[in-house]
Structure formats: C-alpha cells, structure tokens
Amino acid sequence: MGFARQIKLLLWKNWTLRKRQKIRFVVELVWPLSLFLVLIWLRNVNPLYSQHECHFPNKAMPSAGMLPWLQGIFCNVNNPCFQSPTPGESPGIVSNYNNSM
C-alpha cells in the first residue's frame, strides 16, 4: 500500500470519526480559538510600557564559599534594578566581593 493511499485513508477515518461526534468536533475547534481570542483581548487591554534596561548586582555562586554566597543572598534580597551597569559587569572583572563590605 502506497504512502499517499495510507495518508488518504487516515484522513478519511479521522473525518468520519469527527462527523459522528459533532459536539466534540465543535469543542475541538472553539476551545483553542477562544483561548487565542482571550490572549488577543488581554494584549489590547494591557498596552506595552517602556522600561529602562535593568542591571542587577552580581551574586556569588555556592562554589565561591559559604560567606560570599550568603552575602550575595542576604544583601540583595529585594533584587534592586539599576539603570547603569554594575561594577561586576565590567569586562575582565571576575569578582568584586573583596571590597564589597
């Protein structure tokens, strides 16, 4: 049996099953369409707003040691956002924890 004939028979079987279960067929069409329309509506109701570029202070990984890791967690609890790059983002600087306190 050829590939095209198998595809044709599969599509025929699928269409026959869909014709027999009309409510399920309608739900399969309406449900994704309604979700898509809700997303479009939400996008139009809540317009985009412009926000500046955000730079966060760097935090130590657990492999840097227990004290720098805990300092990074507790000193930046509120996760502040800065408009300019932080010192830890400068190229060539691996760690700026030595003079952070």
From TrEMBL:
<keyword id="KW-0472">Membrane</keyword>
<keyword id="KW-0812">Transmembrane</keyword>
<feature type="transmembrane region" description="Helical">
    <location>
        <begin position="23"/>
        <end position="42"/>
    </location>
</feature>
<keyword id="KW-1133">Transmembrane helix</keyword>
<protein>
    <submittedName>
        <fullName>Retinal-specific phospholipid-transporting ATPase ABCA4-like</fullName>
    </submittedName>
</protein>
